[in-house]
Design goal:
Shape: globular
Helix content: 25-40%
Structural class: alpha+beta
Number of strands: 18
Mean pLDDT: 85
Number of helices: 9
Radius of gyration: 24 Å
Length: 336
């Protein structure tokens, strides 16, 4: 008979909720309010479909009318549109050798769950960078019988100073303020910045980074009062860096549990030497930039988009007014 196995210490009904909650606790994106989870999006992510439609009413426009005795007021209508979110399904399997150190913990299930949650927290950040690459990407021009110009999907929320000459192409406090101003009077909603580690290092050298140390939590860095998240997945191309600014709740997160879905299970290969234990963890998520609809224009599998397909700008289309999309991209250089 084998000794203690993963099956002996992992209770799937308890393990998976802990992993989901712990993933959120570990995520700096969630801690600063950029990613917002809700029961509504949990429910949407649980649907048996690759995408979900979210109708909304357009804002009211126009001007008020002067009241004139005996004259009818003009009949105005409210219009509607729809936002569309993609549901993506991911899974990962580990063997006992990968998790063997965790088995020595006083509570091995919680120790393993912490490791798994850490993986999903990092994976979630990679998914977000892929989404951002997509919504700010450029669909190439098309030639031939039906020509189309190149189109940057969310150009209204993109400031690119990298093409300027000399220091004008480099990050500066003034250029950062210009990037915020793309949202006009909605810029006060911007609360977080996601940047490449090289950008953060350059700002540190200029003593522009402040450290906040809460009494009951881990310290974090800020720039102009906005919390910094460092991720080397942020695009960098020939010295041009892309930094993202976010507002609270800019990204909607749904943790789904569809019918028939098995989020956690264990298995054992009895014939491999003394046996090998396996832990399989699955996630069904929505990670949606509010106001930018997923079009499914280039998606190969009916189960939903791959990470590469999330990066494809052809799969995204803004449906909200630019000010209502609480995300800004800032392209810049760093200088010497």
């Amino acid at each position: 008979m084998p000794g203690t196995t993963l099956r002996d210490v992992i209770v799937p009904e308890l393990f998976n909720p802990y992993v989901v909650n712990r993933t959120m606790e570990l995520s700096a994106l969630a801690q600063c309010g950029i990613i917002a989870n809700s029961s509504e999006f949990d429910s949407l992510a649980s649907q048996a479909a690759p995408t979900v439609n979210m109708p909304f009413f357009e804002d009211l426009t126009g001007e008020s009318e002067q009241v004139i005795e005996g004259q009818d007021l003009e009949d105005n209508k409210i219009t509607s549109s729809k936002d569309v979110a993609a549901i993506f399904r991911r899974a990962k399997m580990w063997s006992a050798t990968d998790l063997s150190a965790a088995l020595a913990g006083t509570d091995p299930m919680m120790a393993i769950a912490d490791l798994v949650a850490g993986f999903w927290q990092r994976d979630l950040q990679k998914e977000l960078i892929a989404v951002l690459n997509g919504i700010f990407g450029t669909v190439p021009a098309v030639t031939g019988d039906a020509p189309k110009d190149a189109e940057t999907r969310l150009e209204s929320n993109l400031l690119d100073i990298s093409g300027k000459s000399g220091n004008a192409a480099n990050w500066s406090g003034g250029a950062f303020i210009d990037a915020e101003q793309l949202l006009g009077d909605a810029k006060a909603q911007l609360t977080g910045i996601c940047m490449h580690s090289a950008t953060e290092a350059a700002l540190k050298k200029q003593n522009l980074i402040e450290t906040v140390q809460p009494s009951n939590d881990v310290g974090f860095s800020t720039y102009q009062g906005k919390r910094i998240i460092i991720d080397d997945g942020c695009p960098v191309d020939k010295g041009v860096y892309t930094t993202y600014l976010f507002g609270n709740g800019a990204i909607a997160l749904g943790n789904g549990n569809p019918a028939g879905f098995v989020p956690t299970e264990t298995d054992r290969a009895k014939r491999k030497g003394s046996g090998v234990d396996y832990l399989i963890n699955r996630r069904t998520n929505i990670l949606h930039p509010r106001g930018v609809a997923f079009t499914s224009a280039n998606v190969a599998k009916t189960e939903g988009p791959s990470r590469e397909e999330l990066r494809d700008p052809a799969n995204w289309k803004p449906v909200y007014e630019p000010k209502q999309i609480r995300i800004v991209a800032f392209k810049h250089k760093l200088g010497a």
